[in-house]
Amino acid sequence: MKYSRLLTAFCLSTLASLAQADWVVRNPLPMVIGSNPNAGYGNPINDFSNGSKLYAGVSAGYSKQGDICNDPFFTGTCSNGDLNWKVMAGARFSPMFGAEISYNELGESSMSGSQNGNPAAMRNEVSSINLAGMGYMPITPQLEGFGKAGVAFWKRDSERTTPDTTTTIPNSKFITETSNDHGQSPLVGVGAQFRMSPNVHLRAEWEHTFNVGSDSNYETDVDSYSVGLTYSTL
To answer: In b/e form, how buried is each residue of 137-164, taking b as 16+ CB within 10 angstroms?
Structure first.
């Protein structure tokens, strides 16, 4: 996770530099009295006269695996949230519709305590590749909202430690079990993005993935909140 966070920070700083450079090129004297604040922006945000618009981006934020800590037979400490990051690419086919693919690192959750009176610990890490259709709604010339719906191809790596019940001395030996679950689940999301320049958008969004780990004993929905930047050369 350490290197993933460093990579995310680097990508965000790179996109921020591109946004700043794009602004300077298109607005060399933004502070001159009487200058046009929209100079260099060209056509409005939803001008698709040149065909499909391709973009790529990166974002980071916080994810929560909501049902992990709801085990009624568990007592102890439980953490169901962690930092997340994702990289994305997409296409706008029209002012109102598009499609997007993303790779998402959704973080870890962990539990440590006892279950049914026996010591127990559990940890899992979730990642996914998401495919979604996008719908856009303009709010102002520089701000628009969007919604998405699609499918998440998720992977969950889990590790669980419990007492070895085959021994004659209770809790004298422990067994660690690992599992790698894969599956597909529906996802939905909403968000908004602000047009910083013709090529750069600042984006904030919420995504909800249903039933991650549906083939295991710890099925959970995942909520992801993130802020990031997208960049297009078109």
So the answer is: eeeeebebebebebebebebebebebbe
Contact indicator for 72, 116 with CB cutoff of 8 Å: no
Of the candidates 60, 74, 73, 57, which has an alpha carbon nearest to the alpha carbon of residue 14? 57
Q: What does the radius of gyration of the chain's CA atoms come to, in whole angstroms?
A: 22
Amino acid type, 48: F
Residues 160/181, Cβ–Cβ less than 8 Å: no
Q: For 155-221, give the secondary structure using H, E and C.
A: EEEEEEEEECCCCCCCCCCEEEEEEEEEEEEEEEEEEEEEECCCCEEEEEEEEEEEEECCCCCCCEE
DSSP state of 59: E
Residue at token pair 């049902």:
67
pLDDT in tens, 120-139: 888 889 999 999 999 999 99
Domains and CATH numbers, the chain: 2-231 (2.40.160.20)
| Residue-wise pLDDT tens digits, 61-92 | 999 998 778 777 778 898 999 999 999 999 99
How far, rounded to the nearest angstrom, does the alpha carbon of residue 226 sit from its chain's CA centroid? 6
pTM for the model stands at 0.76
SS3 per-residue string spanning 110-160: EEEEEECCEEEEEEEEEEEEEEEEEEEEEEECCEEEEEEEEEEEEEEEEEE
Which residues, 6 or more positions from 200, have their beta carbon under 8 angstroms from its beta carbon? 15, 18, 19, 22, 229, 230, 231
